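Hey, weird one. I pasted the Divergent protein kinase domain 2B sequence into the form twice and got a warning about non-standard characters only the second time. First submission, copied straight from the form history:
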Amino acid sequence: SWVFWKASGYPAFHDLLMLLLVLALSCNPSTAATASPSAPHIKPSYSFGRTFLGLDKCNACIGTSICKKFFKEEIRFDTWLSSRLKLPPSYLLSYSGNYTDDAKSWRLVDITRLTSKYRHDRADKRICTSLLKTKTCSLERALRRTHRFQKWLRAKRLTPDLVQGLSSPMLRCPSQRLLDRIVRRYAEVPDAGSIYMDHLTDRDKLRLLYTLSVNSHPILLQIFPDVEGWPFPRYLGSCGRLVVSASTRPLRDFYSAVPEVAADLALQLLAVLRSMGTNDLNYFFYFTHVDAGTFGVFSNGHLFIRDASTLGIIDKEEGSQLIDGQQEYKDIFSCLTVDCQSAFVSCNSIREKHSLVMVCQELLPKLLKGKFLQPVQEKIDSFLQHCADGLADDQSLNEAVAKLAELLKPLRSCDSRFAYRYPDCKYSDKY
């Protein structure tokens, strides 16, 4: 055959094969693109910028404990886990994401900023203009020069004078026991466990101070973890100015829920408020503000505190180590997210019924209004009005809450929609 091809003037068999290969590639654009060195295959990927995450602001940031997850694409913003990865707008306050440890099973997470990008930018500008008299600057260099942070650098222990004047409700009435818990449970450092700050570097101290100054939500999730029974979502870590925690749906999504779901959530809400006032550690938690996003519901029906930024804490065991006059101390850390002129609420003015009255005014009516048959609905409405007025003393209000709970218990059902208590509710009077 070789003699035939050669004698006939046809190209050699090898040359013919090469010709056929070239023709085949030219007829298949996708193959040609893959084979061509001028168009290499690029894996779709998030183009993470330090600016989007807030890493360019560190160490005026929360931390870096979960950054590797972002860069390895083990945290994704897209709900459907698409290969066409694309970052969402940077101006949003929170994002829905997916998280994995093994690249096979994914779970929903909430990715949130400490405050809005607008407030962050305004606070950054205020730091530069007030401390260095410039429009832009190194935030870390500016904050390190402050009197407060210099005191932090010298301190061996986090004491009440180091946090006085910060706007976080959690620190308005601080006890030494609470501050020791913050240092001991601080999850952004590897060697947590001691009440002394020897294991914190200068960088760690600035990150902790910045977080406490802007929004104490991630700190509360760390020091009162869900695995110990506290009603908060699990803290998974932070990167720059983003916090990652277990996902919940805001309570507003359930305002139109069927009666049995509404009754169940209302009972859980009352139970959370009760645990905030009475718990094994003798801390009294109170809200300075509640809205439709303060509470959230997990996929198993369990209700948690979704946004802890407005939670104050009073230590019933030790009391507050700050007198009211000390609360009025103000510096740049006091004014990063609030108006410096805003007055603090006195620790002594917080009553036991404080949070319950707000919940009766803002949340329970929207959850329970018009859901049940008479005369049950009338009794519920009457209680809510009585509670919202806030005129009754603490004991009378607690008795009324107990009566409301008894009214709601038989209105909820026992089925798989309430996975947090099912099938236990079939066999236990507790549910």
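That's the output from the first submission. The warning seems to come from a hidden character in my clipboard, not from the data itself. Residues 1-43 have pLDDT under 50 and may be disordered.
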